[in-house]
């Protein structure tokens, strides 16, 4: 591939969404390559999945805060992503909020997956929020990242039913399975440059 579209992936957890994206690339469904995988958690499964695939993977200590990166860490993440010459940053279970300098360095080029039909249930444990609220339809959202929490323009959504016997775990599993189909589909459209943005509206040029 000449000048392949380069993706940087950030994650803090097991990395099943990363695996779905990496598998879709291998299967030829996304015209891209994962240039680097970064994590704020040294033992995160996502790093091992990357190493298993011979993709550069790096733990970067997040610093003193619990929910964001400190200044040094932010600089280290930005530098690693710039060195890897990424075109797109994919947040696949990255558990820290990204702030000003990071967002400015990659404006309009950061996407996230969230386990709810936004704007419902932003923040943590959205599947539990959905169950507690009693909604009958839950799901997941891929969106651009802006300065808010789970508030950027929506690229794609996928709905799943909430069943009467659901527990937080069973609903979470159903949402997770939907994520593994939605996220690669959205990343493929971004890599193919089939996505345009007009304010909050994200238009898919090809269905
Ligand atoms: C997903 O549920 C995603 O919606 C949320 O974090 C989780 C990451 O899961 N942002 P995994 O590490 O990709 O398995």
Description:
It is a single chain. The chain has about 210 residues and is of the alpha/beta class. It folds into two domains: about 1-105, Rossmann fold (3-Layer(aba) Sandwich), CATH 3.40.50.170; about 115-140 and about 155-205, Formyl transferase, N-terminal domain (Rossmann fold, 3-Layer(aba) Sandwich). Helices cover about 35% and strands about 25% of the residues. It contains six helices and nine strands. It has helices at about 15-25, 45-50, 70-85, 100-105, 125-135, 170-190, and strands at about 5-10, 30-40, 55-60, 90, 110-115, 135-145, 155-160, 195-200, 200-205. Strands 3-2-1-4-5-6-7 form a seven-stranded mixed beta sheet, with helices on both faces. The chain has a two-stranded antiparallel sheet with strand order 8-9. Helix 1 (about 15-25) packs parallel to helix 6 (about 170-190). It is globular and about 50 Å long. The relative contact order is 0.15. The mean pLDDT is about 95. Bound molecules: 5-O-phosphono-beta-D-ribofuranosylamine. The site of 5-O-phosphono-beta-D-ribofuranosylamine (GRF) has 14 residues, from helix 1, strand 5 and helix 6.
């Amino acid at each position: 591939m000449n000048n392949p579209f380069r993706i940087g992936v950030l994650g803090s957890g097991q990395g099943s969404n990363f695996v779905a994206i990496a598998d879709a690339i291998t299967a030829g469904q996304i015209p891209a390559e994962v240039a680097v995988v970064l994590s704020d958690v040294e033992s995160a499964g996502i790093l091992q999945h990357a190493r298993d695939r011979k993709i550069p993977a790096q733990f970067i200590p997040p610093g003193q805060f619990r929910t964001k990166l400190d200044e040094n860490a932010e600089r280290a993440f930005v530098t690693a992503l710039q060195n890897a010459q990424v075109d797109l940053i994919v947040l696949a279970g990255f558990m820290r909020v990204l702030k000003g300098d990071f967002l400015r360095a990659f404006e309009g080029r950061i996407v996230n997956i969230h386990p709810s039909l936004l704007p419902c249930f932003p923040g943590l444990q959205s599947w539990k929020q959905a169950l507690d609220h009693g909604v009958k339809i839950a799901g997941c959202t891929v969106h651009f990242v802006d300065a808010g929490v789970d508030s950027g323009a929506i690229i794609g959504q996928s709905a799943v039913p909430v069943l009467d016997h659901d527990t937080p775990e069973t609903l979470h599993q159903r949402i997770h399975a939907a994520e593994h189909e939605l996220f690669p589909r959205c990343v493929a459209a971004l890599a193919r440059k089939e996505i345009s943005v007009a304010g909050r509206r994200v238009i898919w040029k090809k269905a």
